[in-house]
């Protein structure tokens, strides 16, 4: 038995996976052998889901039936809608609303009696969850605005339909493609904290609803999915401070503040997803307001050149440019992390089912550092 303590499980191999691989020194990410650049430029989010869940990129007829099956599952129950309304009225945070929604989806699951090891049934359940998340999230946002939810449009893909249900406007091609790309970029990323959480839950042979609910919970933290919202909040803080962005970032780093969107447990160089989102952010800025893009690049240049952070392996991660992209698409800031969850649900489901195929309960140990022996004192004598 190896007794080395690996805090944060850093570098510990716990499973084999064919789903995604990260080269943190080269800044390379692949899903089943396809580079993230090729998938982002050439595929749709639905194709990527199919790739992750079924092992190959779909042929046209496969994609057509897969998309139709997903689209059929988009509606959520009246109970879920009523809960989204209540939570919106109570000013609940969107990630908490999403956590509740995913957990509630199981109440209308037609195959709830399927055996835990029926992986085909679990995949269909996963498809239902993935199709319903955008609908529940958009409904929550509509209720917050005091508006009624908008029914899904079966003619729109998952990305475009979400923007439509969120805003009531059918997005133009640039917005739909940009958002679809963002979903592709976030779909999977090895055994990150939320994926591992889902796998731990899945390894007990609990159902996929529990595993995805756990994934949402883990993603909500600022060290993981919450960073994209933090990035945009920092950009707005800089804008509102009326300071030069350079002056702001100098002061912030002198105070020892961590800059959200910088640093990654696995990448020692700039995250390839950040490069793609930077291009999109730049394109959107060229059409509209370049302010956010400009502040972001100023911070990156300062941290890279003056602070030498990139040379130390602390480089922009996926969240650094996603904030300004989503902002320019008109998405409310506190919906950024739920959007991450909307996409990553595909990866969670893929990993849970892959792991369950040859399941072993995940059960690590802690090194005990408490007292070895204490004399028990009854309550009334303490
Ligand atoms: N700004 C300034 N310094 C930083 C930053 C940052 N964002 N991130 C790490 N450092 C420094 C840190 O202070 C430490 O310096 P020192 O060795 O002098 O104490 C060194 O880099 C190593 O930091 P660490 O926390 O030990 O590294 P980690 O691998 O445990 O943490 C991280 C990775 C993502 C938690 C961390 O980089 C961070 O807090 N980043 C900001 C939050 C963020 O952007 N999170 C999103 C991660 S990517 C999306 C995802 O996977 O969900």
UniProtKB/TrEMBL annotation:
**What positions does UniProt annotate as the active site of this protein?**
264, 319
Give the pathway listed in the UniProt entry for this protein: Carbohydrate metabolism; tricarboxylic acid cycle
Q: Which InterPro entries match?
A: 2-MeCitrate/Citrate_synth_II, Cit_synth_Halo_CitZ, Citrate_synth-like_lrg_a-sub, Citrate_synth-like_sm_a-sub, Citrate_synthase, Citrate_synthase_bac-typ, Citrate_synthase_sf
Does the keyword Transferase feature in the UniProt annotation?
yes
Q: Which domain of life is it from?
A: Archaea
Top enzyme class, one word, equals transferase
Q: Which family does it belong to?
A: Belongs to the citrate synthase family.
Q: Does the keyword Transferase apply?
A: yes
Q: Which reaction does it catalyse?
A: oxaloacetate + acetyl-CoA + H2O = citrate + CoA + H(+)
Q: Which GO terms describe its biological process?
A: carbohydrate metabolic process; tricarboxylic acid cycle
Gene3D superfamilies, A to Z: Citrate Synthase, domain 1 (1.10.580.10), Cytochrome P450-Terp, domain 2 (1.10.230.10)
Official protein name in the record: Citrate synthase
Q: Which Pfam families match?
A: Citrate_synt
UniProt keyword list:
Transferase, Tricarboxylic acid cycle
UniProt GO cellular component terms: cytosol
Quote the EC number.
Answer: 2.3.3.16
An example molecular function term from Gene Ontology annotations: citrate synthase activity
């Amino acid at each position: 038995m190896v007794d080395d303590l690996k805090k944060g499980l850093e570098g510990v191999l716990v499973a084999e996976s064919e789903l995604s691989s990260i080269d943190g020194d080269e800044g390379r990410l692949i899903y089943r052998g396809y580079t993230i650049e090729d998938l982002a430029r050439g595929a749709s989010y639905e194709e990527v889901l199919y790739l992750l869940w079924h092992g190959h990129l779909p042929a046209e007829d496969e994609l057509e039936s897969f998309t139709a099956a997903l689209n059929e599952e988009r509606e959520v129950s009246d109970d879920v809608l009523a809960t989204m309304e209540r939570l919106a009225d109570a000013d609940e945070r969107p990630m908490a609303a999403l956590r509740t929604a995913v957990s509630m989806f199981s109440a209308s699951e037609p195959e709830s009696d399927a055996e835990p090891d029926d992986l085909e049934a679990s995949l269909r359940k996963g498809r239902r969850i993935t199709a319903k998340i955008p609908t529940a999230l958009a409904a929550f946002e509509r209720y917050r605005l005091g508006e009624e939810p908008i029914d899904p449009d079966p003619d729109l893909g998952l990305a475009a339909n979400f923007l439509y249900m969120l805003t009531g406007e059918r997005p133009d091609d640039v917005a739909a493609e940009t958002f679809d790309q963002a979903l592709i970029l976030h779909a999977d990323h090895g055994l990150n904290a939320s994926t591992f959480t889902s796998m731990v839950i899945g390894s007990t042979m609990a159902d996929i609803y529990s595993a995805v609910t756990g994934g949402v919970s883990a993603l909500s933290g600022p060290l993981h999915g919450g960073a994209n919202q933090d990035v945009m909040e920092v950009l707005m803080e800089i804008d509102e401070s009326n300071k030069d962005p350079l002056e702001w970032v100098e002061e912030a780093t002198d105070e020892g503040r961590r800059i959200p969107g910088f640093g990654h447990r696995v990448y020692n160089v700039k995250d390839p997803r950040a490069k793609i989102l930077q291009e999109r952010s730049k394109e959107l800025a060229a059409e509209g307001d370049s302010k956010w893009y400009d502040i972001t690049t100023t911070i990156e240049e300062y941290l890279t050149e003056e602070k030498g952070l990139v040379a130390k392996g602390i480089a922009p991660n996926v969240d650094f440019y996603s904030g300004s992209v989503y902002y320019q698409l008109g998405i409310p800031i506190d919906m950024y992390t739920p959007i991450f969850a909307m996409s990553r649900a595909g990866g969670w489901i893929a990993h849970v089912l892959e792991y369950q195929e040859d399941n072993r309960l995940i059960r690590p140990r802690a090194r005990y550092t408490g007292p070895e022996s204490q004399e028990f004192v009854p309550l009334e004598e303490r």
